[in-house]
Design goal:
Layout (H helix, E strand, L loop, with lengths): L16 E6 L6 H10 L3 E5 L5 H18 L4 E5 L14 E4 L4 E5 L9 E3 L14 E4 L4 E8 L3 E8 L1 E4 L4 E2 L12 H13 L3 E4 L5 H11 L4 E6 L2 H4 L2 H7 L2 E5 H7 L5 H15 L3 E4 L14 H12 L4 E4 L1 H4 L4 H17 L3 H5 L10 H15 L4 E5 L4 H8 L6 E5 L2 H6 L6 E5 L6 H14 L8 E7 L8 E8 L11
Parallel strand pairs: 1-2, 1-16, 2-3, 3-12, 5-6, 12-13, 13-14, 14-15, 15-16, 17-18, 17-20, 18-19
Antiparallel strand pairs: 4-10, 5-9, 7-8, 7-11, 8-9, 20-21
């Protein structure tokens, strides 16, 4: 006797998605299951930490959970990117005096309180007088007084203890190093072979960085540009045009920019991504205190809420779920905050404060019409039939007031839209006719909790079926409640 398929985990009841990072605190399959049930829609594997065997185990556990819960789960592999570091010190550390002079040079000898090696020769070509250098996440701040081919003389605006191999940020210059290191290339190859749905490219500075990553990906996986450097902000539109999605990586942005510059920049990135119809993730320190505490601060709750009000596609948890003491609670809190914001009567008005005008295409016009119809007629859900996911992205860009059920024959597409605002993916067999589309849409809506007898649905698709980019059909249907009779799929 065949084993019955598991019941699908139903709609979340919220439209913003939750991306949770996997780490020592959450790598166990039972904990991963708890995180999905608590609200995680996709998982981030941070390639900066852990070995390939660790990540391979996480891939396996997530895919097993996907089958067990009958719900597509996205996997986001986050590449480490180039990390600039200073050299080593005689005693492992030294103290830089406030307002004192400190030199970065090419001398490989261990450093002291006056100098240290800067093992990145390319920096000597771009650093200029007046530029800032930030060490150890900005705890030490230097200003360039004199830049020479073999040494950089600096004044310590903020001094302190500096130790071996601390990270260095260069906010005022475009650093001439590629976004993909040797390690990144190995990690990217591994991630693609394992079937990653998203690749996060760190420290993107220029369009060429994205082009190189795409070439190596070979058409597999979606590419997310992480915006974490001021030089990337200057070319934001170009970078978003070439990526499949974008992440507001506030960690390094907060180091390289003044703290007060980050919130308006976050809104600008979110709005630009929404205009282009690209998923946008807001990340870093969203519920930071929950690494050690079972409850967030009021400021953290407001931070998450503001990202939801801005219309971000997804909000991300980093160390909170990777290494924190309360991973399940962190996802639960983020789920509750997001759901509460979306219940706010002013929410719909807030997310449409930024207008996303449709492009002059039939597909965009119909996607916009879905939102207008849903605001005029009581609609239970928008049913989108798509192979590539492009129709779902167009509809999500409009931020409709009703959920979007994405029916697709492609599991790759179903997993990818796990980070798309308002989308609930249902993998299903392909359709071959208009009548089959309507019948299947109605059955899936009833089966997955997107309506009951008497409810109206919008069906959006392209004819001929199976042709990418052919969205040209919109139909409003009414559920009778009898659609499931005699049907098992």
């Amino acid at each position: 006797m065949a084993k019955a398929a598991p019941a699908q985990l139903g709609p979340r009841g919220r439209k913003v998605k939750i991306l949770a990072t996997v780490g020592p605190a959450s790598r166990d399959k039972d904990m991963l299951r708890k995180l999905v049930l608590a609200g995680a829609d996709a998982f981030r594997l941070n390639m900066s930490h852990g070995e390939h065997d660790d990540h391979r185990s996480s891939f396996k556990a997530i895919r097993e959970l996907e089958a067990e819960l009958n719900r597509p789960i996205g996997i986001f592999c986050d590449l480490q990117g180039p990390k600039l570091r200073v050299g080593k010190f005689k005693d492992g550390q030294a103290v830089i005096r406030h307002s004192g002079h400190f030199t970065l040079d090419k001398n490989p000898e261990p450093g002291d309180e006056t100098r240290v090696e800067l093992p990145h020769p390319e920096l000597f070509e771009v650093l200029e007088k007046g530029q800032r250098l930030l060490i150890n996440d900005g705890k030490i701040r230097l200003k360039v007084l004199k830049a020479e081919p073999d040494s950089i003389l600096c004044s310590a605006e903020v001094g302190g203890v500096i130790s071996d191999r601390k990270g260095l940020n260069v906010p005022d210059a475009e650093v001439p190093i590629p976004a993909l290191t040797t390690k990144d290339r190995k990690d990217l190859s591994f991630a693609i072979e394992e079937g990653a749905d998203w690749i996060g490219l760190s420290f993107v500075q220029r369009p060429e960085d994205l082009a190189e990553a795409r070439r190596l990906m070979g058409g597999r996986g979606a590419l997310c540009a992480k915006i974490e450097k001021p030089s990337a902000v200057k070319r934001l539109d170009e970078l978003l045009e070439l990526s499949d999605g974008v992440m507001v990586a506030r960690g390094d942005l907060g180091v390289e920019l003044l703290p007060e510059e980050v919130p308006p920049l976050q809104k600008r990135i979110v709005n630009t991504a929404r205009t282009l119809g690209k998923p946008v993730i807001v990340a870093t320190q969203m519920l930071e205190s929950m690494i050690e505490s079972p409850a967030p601060t009021r400021a953290e709750v407001s931070d998450v809420a503001n990202a939801v009000y801005d219309g971000a596609d997804a909000v991300m948890l980093s160390a909170e779920t990777a290494a924190g003491e309360w991973p399940e609670e962190a996802v639960t809190v983020m789920d509750r905050i997001s759901a509460q914001v979306e219940k706010d009567p002013a929410y719909n008005e807030r997310i449409h404060f930024h207008e996303t005008l449709p492009d002059s295409t039939t597909a965009d016009a119909l996607s916009h019409a879905c939102m207008t119809i849903a605001e005029t007629v009581p609609i239970a859900a928008i049913t989108v039939f798509t192979g590539s996911g492009s129709t779902a992205r167009r509809v999500a860009r409009e931020r409709p007031s009703v959920p979007v059920m994405v029916l697709t024959p492609s599991m790759t597409t179903a997993r990818r839209v796990a980070l798309l605002w308002g989308a609930h993916a249902v993998p299903t067999k392909d359709i071959g006719s208009f009548e089959e589309m309507i019948a299947k849409g109605k059955r899936m809506a009833l089966r997955h909790g997107f309506g009951e007898a008497g409810a109206k649905l919008i069906a959006l698709a392209g004819v001929p079926f199976g042709t990418p980019g052919s969205t040209n059909l919109l139909h409003v249907v009414t559920l009778t409640g009898n659609e499931l009779d005699g049907h098992s799929a």
